[in-house]
Amino acid sequence: MKRNLYILLAFLVLAGVVVYQSAGDKIQAAFQQEKPMPTETKPQAGYLAPAFTATGLDGKEYRVGGAQDKAILVNFWASWCDPCQQEAPELHALAEKYKDDLNIYGINVTKYDNKKNAKSFVEKYDVNFPVMLDLKGTIYDQYKGAVFPTNVLIDKNGVVQDVILGILPSKDLEKKIKHLIES
Q1: Cα–Cα distance between 144 and 147 in angstroms, integer?
Q2: Half-sphere exposure of 152 toward its Cβ, with a 13 Å CA cutoff?
């Protein structure tokens, strides 16, 4: 009787190993609970991103809010901001490297800047992503902007994943972007 019990136990363990190896990550996923989608809108991690539509310097309309094809990095900046100037070449490189998975939208908070300087900044730093002028600071206020630059990382579902005040070392920002794209 004991012998049959050991054989049955060995068989069950072996069967479990075979099932686990053939299913792999699918088993883990089956036992993990997905977080429900947030319903509240706030410019904070874990909430839906405040929606806005703005026209870029290229004349096209850009929309943030709700599900998108790609993750989004919204970059609030001003031309006179030294950290924004430091960050511009890094954002250029990231926009190029992750163009298939990430949209970067530059929002010049023109309320605290001016159109001429913003356009000069875009040319000087060869900004390769859409830039919008927030003439009255409406979008910046909607996102409770406090410093320049402010970067808001939004996943494909329209959920804010991170809000970065000031600049990060490039490797740290890229790490956050990789995590954003994978989420």
Answers
A1: 10
A2: 30
- N-to-C CA span, the chain: 51
The residues, ordered by sequence, that sit 6+ positions from 129 with a Cβ below 8 Å of its Cβ are: 91, 92, 95, 103, 104, 105, 106
Q: pLDDT tens across 63-76, in order? A: 999 999 999 999 99
Report the predicted TM-score, pTM, of the whole model to 2 decimal places.
0.80
CATH architecture entry for 45-180: 3-Layer(aba) Sandwich (3.40)
Longest distance between any two alpha carbons in the chain, whole Å: 89
* Letter string b/e over residues 79-103, b meaning 16 or more CB atoms within 10 A of that residue's CB: bebeebbebbeebbebbeebeeebb
